[in-house]
Amino acid sequence: MDKSYKKPLLLITFGVILFAAFNNLNYVANFLKSCIGLLAPILSGLLLAFVLSVPVRGLAKRLRRKLTKATDRQIDMISLLLTLICVIAIIALLCVIAIPQLTASVKSIAALVQEKWPDWVGLLQRYGIDTEKLSAHFAALDWKSILQSISSEMNTVIFSVANVAGSTVSAIADVAISLVITFYVLIGWRELSSQSKRALYAYCKESVADRICHISKLAHDTYAKFLSGQCVEVMILGTLIFLSFSVAGIPYAGLTAVLTAAFAFVPYIGGFLSCAFGILFTLLAAPNKALLCLIVYQATQFVENQFIYPHVVGNSVGLSPFWTLLAVLLGGKLFGVLGMIFFIPLMALVSQLLHESIERRLHTRKPELSNVQSNSDENTDISQ
Question: Where, by residue number, does the polypeptide cross the bilayer (predicted)?
Fold first, then answer.
């Protein structure tokens, strides 16, 4: 076939396929769901391996300095074993310590609402607000069953996934396949990386293969920095909030610290949410300390952000608040809480690739602009 006809023919074929897909969206969606269902164990195993690869590789680097006579395979095995032990220990601590305390805190908050309700109704009535319908709805609530439901839900939240997975043989098989894939990927990641690179350079142009390798490395480095940075941020901020609230005598210090640690994975927005919950809990238990709660929380977060975070964590992904907020909103809208978390390093990756593309084009078309931008980039990232 004449090469001059090849590109138009490919474009026409792509247009026909795209037109047919848009006219049969239901069939396309069902087909994609079927493919995802078939590949779910593999995809979940690869995703879990990608998440665990950060601590596994970090431990491997440290072990290599001390175990000089050990092979790479042995170091990978030891680092994977240590990572699994840490994960199991964290889950055990959550089940034994954190969840029972959270259950007790939530139950006490529900009981406190029931106790304070008449006072709140009287306050609203003094301001001329009709509370008859509100009181009727509140009186109709079965608080005993609500408290029992809260307790049972909080106690089984960690085990719900395991119970669902254990309901069918196929689900157990899928989980087993995912774990096996995760194990082999983490153990043999060097061989897989070498084989993938060989295949890539064998079937692609060298420039294309170089570009794919560069993007892959950049994606892994960006995600690793984000995950490690946020984990350190979670531990430091949660501990500081617990200590500062305990010293100031603010109620529900443990519950607020846990929520702060959980929301810390979502930068900027998470801080406002955890602060709002802390003030709400304080208003329920001790309204006179609500302002103190706000001051202590903001002061603790200011100290952590200004003096601890830059030295311990640094700028993990190099995104400005605007792009981080955009990533959180877009990821949350598409994929919920996980989307909020994973879209931040994804947005950082896109920002970095866009920055590199702009620099290449400016260097070709306007070298003087590229030099100016490069000099300014020494102090300021383009994404900020």
Answer: 9-25, 31-56, 77-99, 157-187, 234-253, 265-286, 307-328, 334-355
